[in-house]
Design a protein that fits this description.
Chain lengths: 110, 120
């Protein structure tokens, strides 16, 4: 049950944009529009940021956006702010009614 | 308001079992599936499995298949996750998280987490 592939770390300066990729297969990311993204600050509970590839829950700033192309989903954060520094995880529905997470990406705001 | 309140921290010896609880409130319990996700110290999120409180149907992840059992009590709006034959690698924070009506839907509310430490 291999995890989705994310870069271990990304960084950016305040005001800049960054993109985090999440690569899977046709059995998960590429086959379904059930990709979500979660933000986790140290010692805190994960928070849903994006669902169904590109939808934002109420209360999530529109600086956060999601997309997908083939087997790779992406999370873009524009206008980077200090409070965006956190770990980010993608997840996807995988065939046979299972869920899979990415390995996580540590975002550093310089 | 929606709340998922998990049971307290546990310390277990290798080979033992642990049973965690997750009590839901503030919504219709049977309308939302419940996932269990764990996070080892300094590591990422790992999906363990899911239970549909409406009927009790479960599906488990490969890494814990055969050792995990998820159940629910609709009278108390509580789900349980029991993990047996514990080993040191099972040391982690365990989260319950709900998802509306389907296996692919997002996990929109999470419990506070329960730390399970496996040590001799």
């Amino acid at each position: 049950q291999s995890a989705l592939t994310q870069p271990a770390s990304v960084s950016g300066s305040p005001g800049q944009s960054i993109t985090i990729s999440c690569t899977g297969t046709s059995s998960d990311v590429g086959g379904y529009n059930y990709v979500s993204w979660y933000q986790q600050h140290p010692g805190k509970v994960p928070k849903l940021m994006i669902f169904e590839v590109s939808n934002r829950p109420s209360g999530v700033p529109d600086r956060f956006s999601g997309s997908k192309s083939g087997n790779t989903a992406s999370l873009t954060i524009s206008g980077l702010q200090a409070e965006d520094e956190a770990d980010y995880y993608c997840s996807s529905y995988r065939s046979s009614n299972t869920l899979v997470f990415g390995g996580g990406t540590k975002l550093t705001v310089l | 308001q929606v709340q998922l309140v998990q049971s307290g921290a546990e310390v277990k010896k290798p080979g033992a079992s642990v049973k965690l609880s997750c009590k839901a409130s503030g919504y219709t319990f049977t309308s939302y599936y419940m996932h269990w996700v764990r996070q080892a110290p300094g590591q990422g999120l790992e999906w363990m499995g899911i239970i549909n409180p409406n009927g009790g149907i479960t599906n488990y992840g490969q890494t814990v298949q055969g050792r995990v059992t998820m159940t629910r009590d609709t009278s108390t709006s509580t789900v349980y996750m029991e993990l047996s034959s514990l080993r040191s690698e099972d040391t982690a924070v365990y989260y319950c998280a709900r998802a509306y009506g389907g296996y692919g839907n997002p996990l929109d509310y999470w419990g506070q987490g329960t730390l399970v430490t496996v040590s001799s």
